[in-house]
């Protein structure tokens, strides 16, 4: 059972898309993630890539994020995110975008969007992580002090740096690894 752990929508149950195509982040990993993020969540701008059920972005909104953008290519999954936002009363702080992540990131870059926290949970072992990190850096979607968190399989090796982002922390929870990236010391400043 998927649920919101903390905040304004605490204990609200969330729906998951039918079938095996979505692998929601477990409560254990989600709680660990938000414990690490701590005080950086309230009032932040949050980007949830490969959003699936919207589980992570909704948790961020429940914990006080000012806004969240959910990016999901599957239309049925997008409908589930919309329903979950309605169930939690958080739809007024959310923007849903349907599309391939690479194209959406380019579009957000053209809009001059930038986020405090970017979370990506792509399908495991498909090598989306490195390309997505590089696109985030290329389109300047992360604010200078922001963080990108990648959820991946313990069998997926992520590089120490990708496109101007460097890994600052990794945590393992069973078969899941959370990798935290930020701009390299000189990369986050103007070109």
Could you explain the architecture of this structure?
The protein is of the alpha/beta class and 191 residues long. Helices cover 28% and strands 30% of the residues. It is built from five helices and ten strands; from the N terminus they run E-E-H-E-H-E-H-E-H-E-H-E-E-E-E. Strands 5-4-3-6-7-10-9-8 form an eight-stranded mixed β-sheet. Strands 1-2 form a two-stranded antiparallel ribbon. Helix 4 (101-110) packs parallel to helix 5. The protein is globular, with a radius of gyration of 15 Å. The protein starts with a strand and ends in an 8-residue tail after the last strand.
Please describe the topology of this protein.
Blueprint: E1 2-3, E2 13-14, H1 27-37, E3 45-49, H2 55-62, E4 67-72, H3 75-88, E5 94-98, H4 101-110, E6 115-120, H5 128-138, E7 142-153, E8 161-162, E9 165-173, E10 176-183
Parallel strand pairs: 3-4, 3-6, 4-5, 6-7
Antiparallel strand pairs: 1-2, 7-10, 8-9, 9-10
Helix pairs in contact: 4-5
Descriptors:
191 residues, alpha/beta, eight-stranded mixed beta sheet, 5 helices, 10 strands
**Low-pLDDT ranges:** 187-191
Strand order of the largest sheet: 5-4-3-6-7-10-9-8
What share of the residues lie within helices? Answer: 25-40%
| Broad structural category | alpha/beta
Q: What is the ordering of alpha helices and beta strands?
A: EEHEHEHEHEHEEEE
Rounded to the nearest angstrom, the radius of gyration is: 15 Å
* Count of distinct strands: 10
Major beta sheet, specifics?
8 strands, mixed
Average pLDDT, rounded to a whole number, is: 91
Instruction: Determine the number of helices (DSSP H or I, runs of at least 4 residues).
Output: 5
Distance between the termini: 46 Å
Quick one: overall form? globular
The fraction of residues in strands falls at 25-35%
